[in-house]
Structures are given as structure tokens and as C-alpha cells.
């Protein structure tokens, strides 16, 4: 059985394994203090938020998200990180996490939920093309 809900204090180790897997997928390694900082923020649930997907009680997926003001619409919800354990893929966890974030954002009056992914992430894009609209924007960034 698949369930979606807030991360609990006992989820810390499982969450960190999943978040490390997410970062490894994108070729990043994070120092331990980044994990500590993110976990502390999620526990406060003020600036950034997190949900977990559990399959038969086991944490198999995570979603990290935040809201921000918009100049052209109601506030927006940015789905910053989404990751499902390899052994749980294809079982609906990512789809359910996206739906839960969308419900969360609707309850708070947000006008949209959006996210980005690498163009080469074909597996995720197959799902994303089913649940959202690709509006064709290209992401630019300036590392500081």
C-alpha cells in the first residue's frame, strides 16, 4: 500500500539516503551540513517543506518544495526535489508525491506548481508529460 505524508523524526536516515541518491543522480555530492540544514528546515516547515512516499510502511520517495511570490499570478509552489528509490519506481510514488504537493499548494491558494528536470531525464519526463504541461521555458543560472 502506498501512502504520502509528512516526514517523521524517525525518517531521517531513510530521507538522507534518498536525498543523497537524488544528488548522485545529478552528479552532486553534498557535505553533511547541507543534509543537516535541509532536515532542520523541513522539521520547522516554514521556508521549505517535505513529504515522503511510503510503500508498505517503507520510505521510498521524497518531495521537497517551497512557495514564493509571483508578480503575475497568485503565489507559486516550486517542486525543488523529487526522488523515488530505484526499487520503487513504476509503482506510483512519484505521481502520488506530485499530486500531494499540488493539493498542498491548492489549499494555500497557490496559482501553480512547477519544477524543472534535466532534458536527458527521459524516465521522469514520461511521467511529467502525463501530469503537467511543458511550457517550453529554458532555465538559465549564474552560480555564485
Structural overview:
- With 144 residues, the protein is an alpha+beta fold.
- It has one domain: Gcn5-related N-acetyltransferase (GNAT) (Aminopeptidase, 3-Layer(aba) Sandwich).
- Helices cover 36% and strands 24% of the residues.
- It contains 4 helices and 5 strands.
- The chain has a 5-stranded mixed beta sheet with strand order 1-2-3-4-5, sandwiched between helices.
- The longest helix is centred in the C-terminal third of the chain and has 15 residues, at 93-107.
- It is globular and about 40 Å long.
- The relative contact order is 0.15.
- The mean pLDDT is 96.
- Pfam families: Acetyltransf_1 (PF00583).
- It comes from Kribbella capetownensis.
- Keywords: Acyltransferase, Transferase.
Give the secondary structure arrangement, pairings included.
Elements: E1 2-6, H1 12-25, H2 32-44, E2 49-55, E3 58-68, E4 76-84, H3 93-107, E5 112-114, H4 122-131
Domain N-acetyltransferase: 2-144
Organism: Kribbella capetownensis
Keywords: Acyltransferase, Transferase
